[in-house]
Amino acid sequence: METSAQNAGEPLVATKLQLACGAIGSLLNIVVILILGAIRPGYNAWLIPDSSLERGEGGWIQITNYIVCGVLLLSFAIGLRRALRTGHGSTWGPILLGLFGLSFIGIGIFVTDPVLGYPLGESSAPTVAGTLHNLFGQLQFISLAAACFVLARRDAADPASRGWTRYSLATGLLVITSDVVFVLTFKLLGGGPIGLIARIGIIVGGSWVALLAIRLMRPKGSIA
Predict the structure, then answer these.
(1) Where are the domains positioned within the chain?
(2) Less packed terminus of the chain by CB within 10 Å, N or C?
(3) With contact defined as beta carbons under 8 Å apart, do 143 and 96 qualify?
(4) pLDDT in tens, 109-144
(5) Residue 220, pLDDT score
């Protein structure tokens, strides 16, 4: 039975733990790709996508990072559904963020093909696993941006949450923009700073998920 504090909007302990998984998972991914990108020999984080860290020596670390983050984000999506309970976005917000978590597991299981000469000496011929990796990668950006827009609409109903409405809209737009610019730069220019472009979307989107989780963990933290 819920206590009076929980009835007032404070999440259950189990729900708080699930919400905490959102902050842990999204921030873990950011930290790991930044550290690995900085220390991996022959890897240029400005030019090479983060998923290329799955290949080469120590690639298992990035594969594990993706899968662990995905599991944590799936748990977060379940906690989000419990925290939102009713109202606009209470169904689609968790579903979209669940797909976001699932996409991490997908890109971890299906390893990317070599791109832009990394790792050195490996064939860049397309494979089924690489194609599936790319599809899960697109699902990642699309599902996250859509979740931002869905939850922005939910917050828009509450005048006290206008700041979050603007923040969610801005995040969704930046995530979509980074994805489009990434694809166009890779396809049209055959290179360029796509590692940096991808990381902008990852850091912006991951920070939004972490802050959303922290927000919901507070007493009366459920949105609108």
Answers:
(1) 9-115+123-217
(2) N
(3) yes
(4) 999 999 998 998 888 889 999 999 999 999 999 999
(5) 63
What is the model's pTM? Answer: 0.90
- 């912006």: which residue's tokens? 204
CATH topology of domain 9-115+123-217: Rhopdopsin 7-helix transmembrane proteins (1.20.1070)
Q: Give the H/E segment covering residue 64.
A: helix 59-84
Q: Give the distance, in angstroms, between the CA of residue 110 and the centroid of all CA atoms in the same chain.
A: 17
Going by C-alpha positions, the residue among 166, 167, 176 that lies closest to residue 146 is 176
Q: Give yes or no for a contact between 30 and 203, defined as CB atoms under 8 angstroms apart.
A: yes
What phi and psi, each to the nearest 5 degrees, are found at residue 20? -60, -30
Count of residues in the chain: 224
Taking only the tens place, the pLDDT of each residue in 22-57 is 999 999 999 999 999 999 999 999 999 999 999 998
CA–CA gap between residue 208 and residue 206 (Å, rounded): 5
